[in-house]
Design goal:
GO molecular function, one term: oxidoreductase activity, acting on paired donors, with incorporation or reduction of molecular oxygen
Order of helices and strands: HHHHHH
Subcellular location: Mitochondrion inner membrane
Protein name: 25-hydroxyvitamin D-1 alpha hydroxylase, mitochondrial
Number of domains: 1
Pfam families: p450
Radius of gyration: 20 Å
Distance between the termini: 31 Å
Shape: flat
GO biological process, one term: cortisol metabolic process
Length: 153
């Protein structure tokens, strides 16, 4: 999507990615709290609403940083090249080249796709690990398959 890695699988996760991940988790909690509260109560107990706004701001800032980085890469590489030849990050590149899409729309879509990706991947991995824990024979077979392909360790 972005044409760059976020660093989630690195031994040391970049601080901006860590902030984004924490903001996503907090958005899920804050959304439930603010949806359960009547809107007039937000003025009396502003904490959940303020937290939700702060976390969305952090997610938008993270997405903005990656969109701007991609825009700079495209600007450097696009001189005289058709847009199909611009390499990785083609989804974002495609939207950046479409002049009828305003920048706030692109940023909003990227932010929501990142949010959806975190939720989808974490749910899928959680269920996969849960099922592996319930079926040790499958866990052993998977381990054997992985070590056969990649080697031990």
């Amino acid at each position: 999507l972005l044409g760059s890695r976020l660093g989630c699988l690195e031994a040391e996760v970049p601080p901006d990615t860590e902030t984004f991940i924490r903001a996503v988790g907090s958005v899920f909690v804050s959304t439930l709290l603010t949806m359960a509260m009547p809107s007039w109560l937000h003025r009396l107990v502003p904490g959940p609403w303020d937290r939700l706004c702060r976390d969305w701001d952090q997610m938008f800032a993270f997405a903005q940083q990656h969109v701007e980085r991609r825009e700079a890469e495209v600007a450097l590489r696009s001189k005289g090249k058709p847009e199909e030849d611009l390499g990785s990050g083609t989804h974002l590149t495609y939207f950046l080249f479409r002049e009828e899409l305003p920048a706030p729309s692109i940023l909003g879509n990227v932010t929501e796709l990142l949010l959806a990706g975190v939720d989808t991947v974490s749910n899928t991995l959680s269920w996969a690990l849960y099922e592996l824990s319930r079926h040790p024979e499958v866990q052993t077979a998977l381990y054997s398959e992985i070590t056969a392909a990649l080697g031990p360790g």
